[in-house]
Each structure stands twice: as C-alpha cells, then as structure tokens.
C-alpha cells in the first residue's frame, strides 16, 4: 500500500492522466449534444492538461507542493474552453492546499480535492448542476469520507472518489434537461473522471496508455530504424532555436522551410521559436532563420549516416551526446513577461478566425487579433500574450465566442500594469458592434456601458454544417446537413444552402433590421456570395446591406442585423 505521494509520483500521475484523456478525447467529444462543429470538451481538456504534462516532464519537481504549483500554473496558461478553465480552477485550489508539502497522504489528498472544488465553484458565476462541478463536488465529498477511514492510503481515497464520481456522472443525465433529451452524460464530468482514473492507474504502477500522442520532444527525433535510404528524401534532421529580435509573423519562414524540406514543426513562445525540419540544405534554413532573430542553438544530424550505423549495428553518433537542452524558454518566462508600456488609454484585443474578419477588427482599431473561434479555442496564455503587447492602460478583450469568455476572464488577474475588461461577446458581429461604439475620450465606465449595450443591439445568424448525427429540438439532423442558427439556437436545417439563406432573410430579425452585414466564409465563392447578397436585398428591401469576405472556417455565413 502506498502511504504517501511525493513530487515525482504526483508528476507521473498527471502525465499518465494527460495520456489517458488524450487517448479518449474523441469519446468525450462525442458526448457534446449540439451538432455544430465546435471546440469540443475532450479536445479542450486534453490540450489543457497536456500543457501540465509537458512542464512536469521538463522541470521534474521534487515535492508535491512544487509539482502541484507547476501543474496549476501550466493549466492556467493553457486553459482552453470552459471545460479547460474549470479544470485549471480545480487544480489551482488543489495546489493551494498542498503548496508547502513535500508529500501528501490520503487525508491531504481529500483536503486538496475539496479545495479544488471550492475554487471552481467560487470562480463560476452561476454554477450549474449536472456538470463537471457536480461530479467533482461529489467525488471530493466521498474522498473526505474515505480519508476518515483510511487517512494513510491515498490510493483508497482516490478510488472512493472515482466510484462516487461515476455515480454522480451517471446522474447528470437526470439533472440537465438537454442531456436527458439527448441521452448522454456530461462531457466535462466524464473528462474529469478520466483524469482521476489516469492518476490512480499511475499510482498503482499501471503502464501508460498506448496509442496516445507522443510528447513534442519525442516527436522531434526521427525514427531512423524505420527508414530505408530510398525513403530519406531529405537527409539532415535539423533542429534550432532562434531568439526573436523583432515581432514578425513566421508564416513566410514556414512557407520557405516547406519549400526546402518536410516534417516541419515550429514551436513559438514570446521570446523565441524552435524549428524542427528535414532538409538537404540546413545552412539555408539557418541563414533564413537569422532574418527573424539571433540563432542560439542548432542540432544537425545526417539521417542517412545514422541509418548506415544502425544497419551495421554501430552506436549512432548524435548531437544529443553533446547537449540535450533544446527546449524553448521556461515557463518562468511567463512570470517575467515583456509588456508594452502604455501609450494610450484604451486598447482592444479580439478573437476571430478568418483573414477578412481579422482585417475588419484591425480597421476598426483593434490592437491585436487572436486567430481562433468555434473549433479552435485559444488558451489563456494566447490571450494574455496579446494583452501584454497592447500599449494601453485599459485593454478590452472581445472573446466573440461563449466558450472563450472564461479563458479570457482568467487574464484579468494575470495582467501586469494594465486593467483588463472582458466584454462577454459571444459572436463576431457582437464584437464588431461593441468596437464600433468605443470612444477613446470617454471614461471606462461609460465606454463599458456603451459597448455592452451595443452587444445587446445586434442579432446574429449563422449557417454551418452538422458535425454529427443528432435529434435536437425536434430536428432529425444528419451529419453534413446545413444548419442555420439564430442567436445560438437552432433555426432550421436543410440539404440546400440557398433555402436556409432565404428562410433567414425572411425571418423577423432581418425584416426589422436597418443594417445587415453578411460575412461569407472561406468555403464560399465570390459568385455564391453575390447570390446571397441579392437574395437578402430582395427579401429585405428596407435594410442597408453590406457583403464582406470574412474568410472564416466552419461558418459559410455570419449575418448581423441591427
């Protein structure tokens, strides 16, 4: 029986948990009720806890307090979507409970789980039952009861928490009417239990789940044993780090590297970027890299030579024999961030997917636009990075998606030398309307009130496709059907896009509108968009209608009516 958990054991438990949820994330995703493609719960939770696994591998903390602190910090920065944020809150409270402990026993574990639940409930403005909150609360309560019986047995305490959590998860279908109608349990609660189960499996010495994604540092090493000489098109496995000297987008560099090699991976932090590429001309790759900053470290290995060494049974010479320190700057850098000095009173950071939408926000005065949205929820770290770059005293954040608002709100206490105001914009049109009324001369309270009012004045309709079969709100939906949404509610479905557009144009919000903006997505041709414009002009003769290329993925059309 394990009597205590030390830093190494806790770290390995979290790494095991990350591997477990990575393997099962699609099962969690499939519990999502709404058939619209979105930032699914399993993916968001997997990405969130994955940040902790990477940091724990790198830092190898010695005590539970250190390991829990690393975990909480990484989860906070990496939190994606509402489920990821709540997961980070659960472990933030856990970390506070054990911050000064070298090891923990069963009683300490139960207390830490309870601290986590308290932190999550405190941070969520309107806690809903039948969710991850319910599952975590019931599990923590059972852990406390078990700890009174077996205070020196953390495995028994965690096992009891999981058993109770499974009962609570099964009951979520009865607590949430939407889940009951769909016949599924809560996805976030399921993900949390998978994490606890992964932790218990690790404490019991069970092997890591197979079939999960490898850690980034593992992916970067070529598997030479699997290669023949003929298969090695590009001979040199090239890895290097460049310290940035100016802010430049890496897309041109990425395109260049793809033109001279393959197997390209680029990881980027605020201060540096790390490149892995297979190429026959590593010198050209390094030369081009220096246009973006100062070359710090480089590793170049000839895969053909190494393949020959393996075939001959010889030891493979590797630069890893000389140095294994090829990581990007440590997360401590997140505590020593570079923030732009204020040059004005107000700044704006917006989230949007699509070059056209990003351009609209920039034209209206946004200082930073984060690429993200429905299927790609940015992390808290992504958002705080743009806040840091914004040279303003007060920074407004426009999440433009209901599943990004919580991640944005986590940035408020993290901002250094700036006041952050997160406006609860749930759609891109809401964000645009809010930004249009911002007055650089007004006071913060007046500006916030005006922008909030503008959010309520715009009605958003969207057309997308069904990501899964579903029986939702009386609609029998088949994967691939066109879906029309009106203020996030399902408006209708059809196999023909034009029919849905016409029904939207003839609906009350569009008929009552003075101004209508139609943003068409990356999968809509200019010719098709012009047809949509004509359709709306015919159906809404009293409205001023503007057609804009949004370039957004997933949504064929976003339509704002004011």
Could you explain how this protein is built, in words?
- It is a single chain.
- This protein is α/β, with parallel strands linked by helices and 562 residues long.
- The chain has 22 helices and 16 strands.
- The chain has a six-stranded mixed β-sheet. A four-stranded antiparallel β-sheet has the order 2-3-1-4. Strands 6-5-7-8 form a four-stranded parallel β-sheet, with helices on both faces.
- The longest helix is centred in the first third of the chain and has 23 residues, at 7-29.
- The protein is globular.
- Mean pLDDT is 85; it is low at 212-231 and 318-335.
Summarize the structure.
The chain has 22 helices and 16 strands. Helices cover 47% and strands 18% of the residues.
Detail the poorly predicted runs. Answer: 212-231, 318-335
Measured distance between first and last alpha carbons: 65 Å
User: How many structurally independent domains?
Assistant: 4
Neighbour order of strands in the largest sheet: 13-12-9-16-14-15
* CATH fold group of the largest domain: Serine Threonine Protein Phosphatase 5, Tetratricopeptide repeat
Helical stretch tally: 22
| pLDDT averaged residue by residue | 85
| Helix content range | 40-55%
Q: Radius of gyration, Cα only, in angstroms?
A: 26 Å
CATH-level-4 superfamily name of the largest domain: DhaL domain
Provide the CATH architecture of the largest domain. Alpha Horseshoe
The major sheet is characterized as: 6 strands, mixed
How much strand? 15-25%
Query: Total strand count, please?
Result: 16
- Globally, the shape reads globular
CATH class of the largest domain: Mainly Alpha
**Overall SS class:** alpha/beta
């Amino acid at each position: 029986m394990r009597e205590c958990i030390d830093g190494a054991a806790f770290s390995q438990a979290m790494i095991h948990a990350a591997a477990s949820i990575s393997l099962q994330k699609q099962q969690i995703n499939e519990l999502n009720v709404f058939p619209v493609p979105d930032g699914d719960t399993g993916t968001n939770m997997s990405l969130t806890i994955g940040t902790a696994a990477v940091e724990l591998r790198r830092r190898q903390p010695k005590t539970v307090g250190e390991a829990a602190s690393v975990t909480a910090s990484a989860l906070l920065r990496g939190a994606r979507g509402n489920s990821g944020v709540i997961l980070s809150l659960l472990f933030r409270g856990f970390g506070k409970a054990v911050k000064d402990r070298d090891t923990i026993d069963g009683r300490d574990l139960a207390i830490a789980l309870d601290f986590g639940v308290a932190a999550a409930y405190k941070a969520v403005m309107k806690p809903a039952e039948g969710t991850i909150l319910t599952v975590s609360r019931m599990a923590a309560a059972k852990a406390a009861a078990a700890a009174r019986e077996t205070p020196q047995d953390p495995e028994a305490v965690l096992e009891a928490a999981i058993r109770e959590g499974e009962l609570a998860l099964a009951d979520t279908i009865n607590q949430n009417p939407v889940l009951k109608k769909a016949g599924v349990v809560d996805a976030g609660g399921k993900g949390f239990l998978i994490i606890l189960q992964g932790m218990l499996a690790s404490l019991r010495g069970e092997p890591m789940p197979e079939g999960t994604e490898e850690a980034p540092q593992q992916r970067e090493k070529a598997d030479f044993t699997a290669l023949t000489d003929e298969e090695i098109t590009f001979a040199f496995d090239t890895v290097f780090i460049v310290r940035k000297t100016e802010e430049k987008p890496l897309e041109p560099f990425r395109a260049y590297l793809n033109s001279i090699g393959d197997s390209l991976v680029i990881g980027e932090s605020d201060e540096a970027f790390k490149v892995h590429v297979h190429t026959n001309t590593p010198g050209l790759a390094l030369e081009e890299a220096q246009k973006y900053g100062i070359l710090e470290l480089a590793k170049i290995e000839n895969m053909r030579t190494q393949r020959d060494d393996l075939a001959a049974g010889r030891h493979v010479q590797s630069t890893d024999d000389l140095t294994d320190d090829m990581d990007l700057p440590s997360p401590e850098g997140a505590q020593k961030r570079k923030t732009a000095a204020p040059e004005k009173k107000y700044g704006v950071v917006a989230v949007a997917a699509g070059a056209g939408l990003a351009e609209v926000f920039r034209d209206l005065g946004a200082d930073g636009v984060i690429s993200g949205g429905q299927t790609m929820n940015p992390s808290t770290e992504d958002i705080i990075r743009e806040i840091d770059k914004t040279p303003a005293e007060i920074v407004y954040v426009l999440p433009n998606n209901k599943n990004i608002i919580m991640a944005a709100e986590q940035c408020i206490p993290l901002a250094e030398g700036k006041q952050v105001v997160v406006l609860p914009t749930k759609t891109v049109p809401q964000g645009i309307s809010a930004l249009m009324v911002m007055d650089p001369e007004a006071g913060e309270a007046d500006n916030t009130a005006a922008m909030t009012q503008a959010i309520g004045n715009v009605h958003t309709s969207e057309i997308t496709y069904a990501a899964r079969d579903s029986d939702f709100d009386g609609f029998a939906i088949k994967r691939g059907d066109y879906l029309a949404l009106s203020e996030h509610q399902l408006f209708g479905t059809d196999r023909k896009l034009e029919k849905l557009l016409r029904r939207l144009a003839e609906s009350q919000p569009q008929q009552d509108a003075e101004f209508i903006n139609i943003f068409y997505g990356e999968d809509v041709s200019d010719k098709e968009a012009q047809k949509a414009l004509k359709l709306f002009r015919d159906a809404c003769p009293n409205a001023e209608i503007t057609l804009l290329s949004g370039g957004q993925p997933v949504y064929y059309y976003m339509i704002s009516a004011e």
